[in-house]
Amino acid sequence: MKIFICDVCGHLEFNAIPDKCPVCFAEKDKFVQNDSIFKESSEKSPEAEIKHVPAVTVNKQCGLVPESPCVDIIVRVGKTMHPMEEKHFITFVDCYQNDAYIGRAMFTPLGVYPAACFHLKNAKGKITVVENCNIHGYWKSEAAL
Asked: Taking the model in full, what pTM does it have?
């Protein structure tokens, strides 16, 4: 799989570069290819996996939008929760469905836990969740719907 990183906001695209970044709207020339971004993070900090790999729960009963068909994708960063400190924190969590970007939760280092929920209209295929730690880089998890 090809992985392209937006140099402006850190967003990842899989397989192809979009005309504009869906997060920050940067032009396609701002993307650089790095197919081993997840491997590099894991190799650089193998002991960090327990605090970085997103734990993903698929809840078929939507808690926020019960009047419409909806599936909750609940994300918590790390089996042992990742710290959220001024010098070490999760910057964002991105959610993809079938390798297509669908949303981002952004975090400040203080005042929140590294957790998010995405409410899907369509419950088919595969979910990929990518998180970025300001020190330890990119980590991901996948879940079937």
From this structure: 0.92
